[in-house]
């Protein structure tokens, strides 16, 4: 059973057990425009909530992606190195950024469900 | 003048309503509310301009007529030579030349285009500098010239390999024009000034049109399926690939034309030993840079990886860091090259092609190579 949660910084988290898959939302990619480069965190890195974890670059500008929760990076999406445009075509599917081992489940309490996120971007 | 972010104080070009109706994403730029992109996005707009044709609203730029009080255009040309290191006298009627206003320290106040329209000179200057440029012209040339600010005109650029056929339908004179030809021509029956020039590295035209007719002309051009509206985002990536300077970034009051690698734009007649050598602001320093070389130079930079190196990134000679040797002044992703491109200033000793350098990006030192510009071969019709 997967639960999807959202941050006010336009990231999504698919929660499965104690692992969260993290990416940026379709709304975020539409605001960024054509993505040409994604820098992902190193596997094994311990992320603290709210620290810069990844960078997504469009033709025009670079934007930080912040760690939505704390935890160790388990896996990163190598497909984004070869095809950054996946972020534009499938932001909430194939273009996931990294998987993180959830360090503190209480941090999930501060995130939004889909209805709340829709209201946030309306 | 710095761009103001207060939406209410932003000026609008005569094409503002058209931008909004085309879905343009409007952003503040040089005091104007301008489209940074349309729904197609920067990448598609950029590639469309290189393969078909793009239409750009550059009405925020300043258009100025310099009318000689004597009635002789040579007198306006001689007067303007007091402010720029270019040979203006030699610009033949119907021709245009790239120039810079310099200051007493040899720095660049603005870069501009100067055209000879037979009985007067026609200048196009940068939006952010136009008030200062006009004041500068009035303060220095008023004895010889009437400085006529053409604020009631819009400026539309049509760029790309299909620009000629698109414009030929509306302007019979267009196909015969060569790169940097410029003059009054009728376009769609309107009294326009047309030059075969631009800011993309592509063949193309810039069309000055009365403000009240601008929307009709833009819409007529956009009816052609080859022509797509292009925002400031792609304008920047196109000019960067073409190796062209952006004022306030790659050139400014602290860079001389020699440091900026713009020697080609200063004719021999204004250099040491020339018929009208010197006689422009900062001549002593600029001519010394010509004669003895400058200690730093603007160069093109290519990266090995796909991470863009952007404006402000510090440059190093060594992967271990140490003291920075220079700085990136423009950088981003080049859609036609499908790779990052940048330009910046480095010491003359490190400016040779293929010199290996490093740029600091987010704490890492990324390898770069000094590379020839333009990065994308230009297609001007000479």
Describe the structure.
The complex is a heterodimer of chains A (122) and B (382). Chain A has one domain: Beta Barrel (OB fold (Dihydrolipoamide Acetyltransferase, E2P)). In chain A, 19% of the residues lie in helices and 38% in strands. Chain A has helices at 26-32, 79-82, 86-89, 114-121; strands at 3-6, 11-16, 19-24, 35-39, 46-47, 52-58, 62-66, 71-76, 98-102. By secondary structure, chain B is an alpha+beta fold. The radius of gyration of chain B is 21 Å and the shape is globular.
Secondary structure layout:
The complex is a heterodimer of chains A (122) and B (382).
Chain A: E1 3-6, E2 11-16, E3 19-24, H1 26-32, E4 35-39, E5 46-47, E6 52-58, E7 62-66, E8 71-76, H2 79-82, H3 86-89, E9 98-102, H4 114-121
Antiparallel strand pairs in A: 1-2, 2-3, 3-9, 4-6, 5-8, 6-7, 8-9
Chain B: H1 16-21, E1 25-29, E2 32-37, H2 42-51, E3 53-57, E4 62-68, H3 73-80, E5 96-102, E6 108-116, E7 121-125, H4 130-141, E8 145-149, E9 153-159, H5 163-168, E10 182-187, E11 190-195, E12 204-210, H6 211-222, E13 227-229, H7 232-241, H8 283-292, E14 296-303, E15 314-316, E16 326-334, E17 339-347, E18 356-361, E19 364-371
Parallel strand pairs in B: 3-13
Antiparallel strand pairs in B: 1-2, 3-9, 4-7, 4-8, 5-6, 6-7, 9-12, 10-11, 11-12, 14-17, 14-19, 15-16, 15-18, 16-17, 18-19
